[in-house]
Amino acid sequence: MKINSNDIKVGNVLEHNSRLWVVTKTMHVQPGKGGAFMQVEMKEIKTGTKLNERFRAADTVEKVFLDEVAFQFLYREGDDLHFMNQDTFEQMQLPSDLVGKGVAFLSDGMTVNICMYENEPISISLPTTVVLEVVEAEPVVKGQTATSSYKPATLSNGVRVMVPPHIEIGTMVVVDTTDATYVERAK
Fold it and tell me: Where are the alpha helices (DSSP H) in 14-129?
């Protein structure tokens, strides 16, 4: 679908130079001389390459709509991840680099969203938070609880995060999958 360059928003997926780009930043610029333009920062979906592009107000760009399909994570085999479509029960094998750093948070049976463009998987979205058990944590030093300090802890998936001093081994915690940070103690 063609849209006017002034209608470009952060998060839109555009087809530009025969590649798919996600818009990360936009800025409408009206210089003292000449016509106004839209300064757009984009990131290529497959490689992560960044691009800054200027579009004149009269330009049109191709906006792409992605299909999000719910898949269940089945298992990992080397660098490949196996998923099952929850509607059709078809299985799909994808490389782990499609998930990126979040691959450590994948667990058997987890539901993820796979973005598809023309039946081709583009990216995998994990749930924003997961609940994991703390398997290793330093003991609390007396008097340290008065300040808002954090200590390192290792989770059941091997990821190290900073947690408050009152978190002990065996405690279930909620962790943000986007940046691997502690959110709260699980209830």
Answer: none
Mean pLDDT of the chain: 87
118 in Cβ contact with 134 (< 8 Å): no
| Domain span including residue 82 | 67-125
Q: Give per-residue pLDDT as tens, 24-76.
A: 889 998 888 888 899 999 988 877 789 999 999 889 999 988 888 999 999 99
Last residue in a domain, options 80, 108, 125? 125
How far is Cα 162 from Cα 107, in angstroms, rounded to an integer?
Answer: 21
Structure tokens belonging to residue 105: 């948070």
- The side-by-side arrangement of strands in the sheet containing 67-77 is 91-95, 80-85, 67-77, 111-117, 120-125
The pTM score is 0.69
